[in-house]
Design brief:
mainly alpha; 79% helix; 141 residues
């Protein structure tokens, strides 16, 4: 059951990431779309995500491997986008690809802990804020 719960929300972000990857030429536009859809998952699937993180210690190892594979796919799309952005000159060259990717994942993933639908900001506003924070940090000006 935990695998199914996780697969529901990871499939959503993966599908959206592939759409962004295949829709936009610009790494900046790709990353913005990936971040926005990634943030959306916490509004759409917050109960799923909360249950998964609270109970994932009970996950069987064969399911852990399947989950890791999908998470790695998502992480690699972000990593590839960062690398594309650096190669095209859109993103700063002085930043580590891996650390930048993990910082984005870590920042956005933590949203499940504090996001409330009834909170001060809507999920779209939060997504815009993350995009602004991240892009201002990595875009080459």
């Amino acid at each position: 059951m935990l695998f199914v719960i996780h697969d529901t929300f990871i499939t959503y972000v993966l599908e959206k990431a592939y759409i962004a990857k295949n829709t936009y030429e610009s790494p900046t536009k790709k990353l913005q779309a990936i971040i926005k859809s990634f943030v959306q998952v916490f509004d759409l699937y917050k109960p799923h995500i909360s249950v998964f993180y609270q109970e994932n210690v009970y996950l069987k190892s064969n399911y852990e491997e399947l989950i890791k594979a999908k998470r790695d796919q998502f992480k690699n799309i972000i990593l590839e986008t960062i690398r594309e952005g650096k190669a095209s000159g859109e993103f700063r060259h002085d930043l580590s690809d891996e650390i930048t990717s993990m910082a984005i994942l870590g920042m956005v993933n933590w949203t499940y802990k504090w996001y409330r639908k009834s909170g001060e900001k809507s999920i779209d506003e939060i997504g815009d804020l993350y995009v602004d924070l991240i892009m201002r940090s990595i875009v080459n000006e």
